[in-house]
What we know:
It contains 8 helices and 9 strands. It has a 9-stranded mixed sheet with strand order 4-3-5-2-1-6-8-9-7, sandwiched between helices. By secondary structure, it is of the alpha/beta class. It has helices spanning about 30-45, 60-65, 70-95, 115-125, 145-155, 185-190, 200-210, 225-230; strands spanning about 10-15, 50-55, 100-105, 115, 130-135, 160-165, 185, 215, 235-239. The chain has a single domain (about 10-239), classed as 3-Layer(aba) Sandwich (Carbamate kinase), CATH 3.40.1160.10. It is globular. Helix content is about 35%, strand content about 20%. The model has no long low-confidence stretch (mean pLDDT about 95). The two termini are about 30 Å apart. The protein binds uridine-5'-diphosphate (UDP). Uridine-5'-diphosphate binds near residues 17 and 138.
Amino acid sequence: DTPRPALKRILLKLSGEALMGDDAFGINQATIVRMVQEVAEVSRLGVQVAVVIGGGNIFRGVAGGAVGMDRATADYMGMLATVMNALALADAMDKQGLTARVMSAIAIEQVVEPYVRPKALQYLEEGKVVVFAAGTGNPFFTTDTAAALRGAEIGAELVLKATKVDGVYTADPHKDPTATRYSRISFDDAMSQNLGIMDATAFALCRDQKLPIRVFSIVKHGALKRVVMGEDEGTLVHA
Length: 239
Ligand code: UDP
């Protein structure tokens, strides 16, 4: 018997930076292809995959606000940046043989369809990969919060936060060689130790909903698959 995935439906949060690869900004084609291959592997195992994509590789509202722009306007620019990333991601997914559907939290109907929860659920049941664009649709929020929100809405069993480091460490592993990785940690302990897993709004939502988060490395080959197979990969933040 081939081992079955431990998870049925996941919400994967990819930051905009994850698409940059070693570039200074924008979208690196080779990186996006590699990432999509990891997603394709778990999708083919029968795991329903929804993705929330960030926009930091193109535009960050806080940075725009810092140079004198109205914060809400800058945040709308940031949300539009996530739509660009979502289109690139979905295109790469289609080329890898997946069927991707982009759904936007802000109306932009000539480009992508609007987010409609039952429709998203239907796509997932059909084995399509749903890419959620434009974050929550509201300024002053982040795509981490969108990941927590959509994760709760679609009944994901786990929010997967992809980072460059393969989990949560006791200290910054780049600065402190004695730092060790937590295999699991509770929401309460992560909070009292100020571990900064996600921003406070996103973290609070997951904690309230008892929606576990797993921090893992998307650059580590096969890590996503090991997570869905229930192996000890990255760090599980649990209720
Ligand atoms: N953003 C927003 N509301 C949201 C999600 C995102 O206003 O619900 C804006 C915000 O300006 C943010 C930018 O979009 O800086 C890009 O999102 P984020 O910084 O979360 O992207 P990531 O860090 O994951 O690449």
